[in-house]
Amino acid sequence: MSAPAVVVVEPQTPGNVGTIARAMKNFGFSDLKLVDPPELDRDGEAYGFAGQAREDVLPNADRVTFDEVVENYHTIGMTAITNEDCRKHTRFPFVTPAELADDLATVDTEAALLFGREDNGLRNDELERVDRIGAIPASADYSSLNLGQAATVTLYELRDLTLDETQLPDRERERAAQPAVERLHDEFSAFLDAVGHPEEKQPKTERMLRRVVGRTHPTERETSRLTGLFRKAAARLDE
Amino acid sequence: MSAPAVVVVEPQTPGNVGTIARAMKNFGFSDLKLVDPPELDRDGEAYGFAGQAREDVLPNADRVTFDEVVENYHTIGMTAITNEDCRKHTRFPFVTPAELADDLATVDTEAALLFGREDNGLRNDELERVDRIGAIPASADYSSLNLGQAATVTLYELRDLTLDETQLPDRERERAAQPAVERLHDEFSAFLDAVGHPEEKQPKTERMLRRVVGRTHPTERETSRLTGLFRKAAARLDE
Fold first, then answer.
1. Cβ atoms of residues A135 and A125 within 8 Å
2. In whole angstroms, what is the distance from residue B116 CA to residue A218 CA?
3. In whole angstroms, how far apart are CA B130 and each of A169, A200, B69, B77?
4. Is the N end or the C end of chain A the one with fewer CB atoms within 10 Å?
């Protein structure tokens, strides 16, 4: 599917619009739509909070109406407050951002994520018109996220829909090959000999190191450094 | 394990401290520690951005030194920029927040999540002293999250360590029982008869509805409403 649009309905503070624009750029979204936004000055908080999104996402934001959005997109309205069960249809059933990520990955549709006002979110008469209700799991004691933070969490969860790659390097190859790990264990045994570790305790100490190393998935460099260290220590001790 | 502490190292803007305090309360964290923070006025942005965390998390924040934290906690330093591979140890290997959630769930330890300055994050000389490096997967084009947003995403991912329950109701019982769904299909068949749907097309149309209903997991209320609707329509058509 194409990357969902992000729609903010009547945001009151420019800073939140900037925060949302930044999260969009961080997680690979570009289509920002604003329903009745406040003035967004180039010198104000929207641009101040947008980071590098001040170059593209924020200035390219569209002004839209709520009607245009619900008529043309598969809409997901985000809210902190759901109905308790199925007796009402306005805020139930709901989907979490993680579930939404799985769901949207299987559908070919133009989707739009809708976020509401800072104080009251999306109103019931708006939620009644969207296709799905989205809710972020949070503390039962205080479930209401700030607008910008709610958008950040939601876009983070949906990043696999939009990002081909992240900034993080591929780590799959990063565990040292097992022969290198075995050389580490061999050198450790030689080191125990050299240091005069009691022979009867040696197997147990070797098993200890095998358990520690076994669960750390050491990198090649870590493994070769440790191996070299034990080798050098054993050589010095044998001098 | 106990809930990790959240440590912010030399935050520059009070607003970000407030944002982090709010995310902590949203996701069940309470122990906020600040290294050399700015002035946090009761009337300023820290309290303004903290939501209900202005009542507890924020006023209860401890002032600490970086040394105290690394000496007493299992520390995870968050950064947007990792090393590319294992040739350096400062920023590699790294762990994502989702991996960290799984990992910390299995350890009995007092852990602390460290977040750095708005402009430059944690410095190399600080990252060298923490136990683990944490990094949020983000766009390769723009991976640097705002401080408050980075903390929000991280705490969101770690919520299962701290929250016994969220605000969201248990949904497991919310799919209608199958006999109720079958009654819906029966009434739909009767409705097709009543509406004069061609008999040879009826099985295919029934299968269509079975597929639509099958993947929606309708609630009891949705199922009974639809069933009642088809029954009523059929009755009217038969009048």
1. no
2. 27
3. 21, 36, 9, 6
4. C
- Nearest 5°: CA angle at B130, between B129 and B132? 140
Burial class of residue B182 in the structure, from the number of CB atoms within 10 Å of its CB (0-12 exposed, 13-18 middle, 19+ buried): middle
Mutation target to probe the A interface, by most A beta carbons within 10 A, among B94, B156, B163, B219 is: B156
Distance CA A236, CA A213 (A): 24
| Residue A167 touches partner B, C-beta closer than 8 Å | yes
Distances (CA, A) of B220 to A95, A179, B43: 17, 59, 49
Count of CB atoms situated within 10 Å of the CB of B38: 17
| Chain A: closest CA distance from residue B164 (Å) | 8
| Cα dihedral sign, B145-A35-B17-A97 | negative
What does the DSSP 8-state code read for residue B54?
Answer: G
DSSP string, A94-163: EE-HHHHHHHHTT----EEEEE-BTTTBS-HHHHTTSSEEE----BTTB----HHHHHHHHHHHTGGGT-
- ipTM metric: 0.89
Task: Decide if B18 contacts B49 (C-beta within 8 A).
Answer: yes
Interface contact flag, A143 B96, Cβ < 8 Å: no
Kindly list the residues from chain B whose CB atom is less than 8 angstroms away from the CB atom of residue A52.
142
CA of B21 to nearest chain A CA: how many angstroms apart? Answer: 11
Cα of A202 vs its chain's centroid, Å: 45
Phi, psi of A112 (to 5 degrees): -135, 130
Contact A136 B156 (CB under 8 A): yes
Q: Which of A94, A99, A143, A152 to mutate to test the interface with B (most CBs of B within 10 A)?
A: A152
The neighbouring-strand residues paired with B196 are none
Q: What is the pLDDT along chain A (239 residues), one digit of tens a residue?
A: 679 999 999 999 999 999 999 999 999 999 999 999 999 999 999 999 999 999 999 999 999 999 999 999 999 999 998 887 777 889 888 999 999 999 999 988 999 999 999 999 999 999 999 999 999 999 999 999 999 999 999 999 999 999 988 999 877 667 899 999 999 999 999 999 999 999 999 999 999 999 999 888 899 999 999 999 999 999 999 88
Question: In Å, what is the CA distance from B6 to each residue of B19, B28, B42, B90, B115?
Answer: 13, 12, 21, 21, 8
| C-alpha B132: how far from chain center | 22
Please provide residue B99's backbone torsions phi and psi, each rounded to the nearest 5 degrees: -65, -40
